[in-house]
Specification:
Elements (H helix, E strand, L loop, with lengths): L1 E8 L3 H12 L5 E3 L6 H4 L30 H15 L2 E3 L4 E6 L5 E5 L3 E9 L20 E2 L12 E5 L3 H12 L3 E5 L14 H9 L3 E4 L2 E6 L3 E6 L3 E6 L2 E4 L7 H6 L13 E2 L4 E2 L4 E3 L14 H4 L2 H14 L1
InterPro entries: Bdr (IPR023856), FAD/NAD-bd_sf (IPR036188), Ferredoxin-NADP_redctase_2 (IPR050097)
GO molecular function, one term: oxidoreductase activity
Cofactor: FAD
């Protein structure tokens, strides 16, 4: 069995940042990642532009230099690959952690699909991108309904419905329109979300006003069929329109069950794990959290730009424990 001082579950920017902070303080942690590094960023839309500026995505003191203030997905992927190489981080990729169990001696047994590890401390930095928020409407599981958007080209000359009204929905709608899809956006809100990137809202609003993209506010989806979607507007008027594909961009949430099985308590209303914000340690002594998972269901509270600092708090606490 492989013995480790610290195991970090998740190789996203916040997990990598925690690994760097620990290594710089004399502990060389093992990062275990179910995909490859920054897998969630890899799964972003191909042409995604970040909301944050490049300097706010930096980790480990490695400069992130781009020609524009706001980097795009491919630039971020290249940057984080370079950081891993420069910092010589130990990462087991394509290895999914199945469970973390506390032992009687206070250590943790970490079981993956490939083996078992024993660690003195565990950091959970798994994010939320694997768990879409489902609408629980008939037809949501049909093969032409997606909760992730990658590229628009396959939907040229097709009727496409985008569900949601925040950044992911607006980005998808714009890309689909530019690729020649006939786009309808259904949003249960009464107006544009305040979280929409300010540099894309004017373009989106202009396309709506000109009728190039159809937007329905106060729209609640009722049912999805193979060639149509039904929804209710203002709680009274039911409409049915044709659609070939549906993108339900309804957000994501952490894997609460994964945390609960470790003994981490979750606030059922907010989805927020119980943890000490000064150390990022959960109610389970020796289990820490890093990144957006600390925000619970509110994915707009913690981003890379503030979650990257969790690693420093975690490293300081673990080092302090070692000196006692």
């Amino acid at each position: 069995m492989q013995e480790e001082k610290v195991i970090i579950v998740g190789g996203g920017p916040c997990g990598l940042s925690a690994a760097i902070e620990l290594k710089e303080k004399g502990i060389n942690p093992l990062v275990i990642e179910k995909g490859n590094i920054v897998d969630s960023i890899y799964r972003f839309p191909t042409h995604q532009t970040f909301f944050s500026t490049a300097d706010r995505l930096e980790i480990g003191g490695v400069p992130f230099i781009t020609e524009n203030r706001k980097p795009v997905r491919n630039q971020a992927l290249a940057y984080y690959r370079e950081v891993v190489k420069r910092k010589n981080l130990r990462i087991h990729t394509y290895e999914k952690v199945e469970k973390v169990e506390k032992q009687q001696d206070g250590t943790f047994m970490v079981t993956t699909e490939k083996g078992k590890y024993r660690a003195s401390f565990v950091v959970i930095a798994t994010g939320y991108y694997d768990n879409p928020n489902y609408m629980n409407v008939p037809g949501e599981n049909l093969p032409h309904v997606f909760h992730y958007f990658k590229e628009a080209h396959p939907y040229f000359d097709k009727d496409v419905v985008v569900i949601g009204g925040k950044n992911s929905s607006v980005d998808a709608a714009l890309e689909l329109y530019k690729a020649g899809a006939r786009v309808t956006v259904l949003y249960r809100g009464s107006g544009y979300s305040s979280s929409i990137k300010p540099w894309i809202l004017p373009e989106f609003d202009s396309l709506i006003k000109k009728g190039y993209i159809k937007m329905e506010f106060r729209a609640d989806v009722k049912e999805i069929k193979n060639d149509s979607i039904s929804y209710i507007v203002n709680g009274t008027e039911e409409k049915t329109i044709p659609c070939d594909f549906v993108f339900a961009m309804t957000g994501y949430h952490p894997d609460h069950n994964f945390l609960k099985k470790m003994g981490v308590l979750i606030d059922e209303q907010t989805g927020r794990p119980y943890y000490n914000p000064d150390t990022m340690e959960t109610n389970v002594n020796g289990i820490f959290i890093a990144g957006v998972i600390a925000a619970g269901n509110d994915a707009n509270e913690i981003f890379i730009e503030n979650g990257r600092f969790h690693g420093e708090l975690i490293a300081e606490e673990i080092i302090k424990r070692g000196k006692k």
